[in-house]
Specification:
alpha+beta; five-stranded mixed beta sheet; about 35% strand; globular; about 130 residues
């Protein structure tokens, strides 16, 4: 039993697990959304030394590198994909293309899929240009 005013330290493990599960849920929804629009998911949670790409999807001659963000609002989700995140994903995409040369001739596009609870999805295709 704790005395009045006694602080309890928390590791935050419960919060991290909940955040992780929310991310997995959002990525599953985004994958389903893309499948319903004719995309084939090539990779999920593709990890490199530069970071992780949530989804890699193809449709026709386009290879979409997709960052999925789940937040309390669509606006906050879209705003969370800052320039640092964009660079990290672009570098990870270069690693993917180096390891999977069969996709090297595709038009590469960077997309963001924002998910808001309970279920609202916004797909911003060609969200940024990772050019020079």
């Amino acid at each position: 039993m704790r005395a009045a005013g006694e602080a309890v330290l928390s590791t935050g493990a419960g919060h991290k697990k909940k955040t992780y599960e929310k991310g997995v849920w959002a990525e599953c929804l985004a994958g389903f959304y893309l499948n319903m629009r004719g995309y084939k998911i090539v990779a999920r949670r593709y990890k490199t030394q530069h970071g992780e790409i949530d989804l890699i999807a193809e449709r026709g001659e386009v290879l979409a590198i997709v960052e999925v963000k789940a937040r309390g609002s669509i606006e906050r989700a879209l705003e969370s994909v800052d320039i640092r995140t964009q660079r990290r994903i672009a570098n990870a995409a270069l690693m993917f293309l180096a390891e999977r040369p069969e996709y090297a001739d595709r038009a590469i596009r960077f997309d963001v899929i924002a998910v808001e609870s309970p279920v609202k999805i916004v797909h911003l295709d060609n969200a940024w240009d990772a050019g020079p």
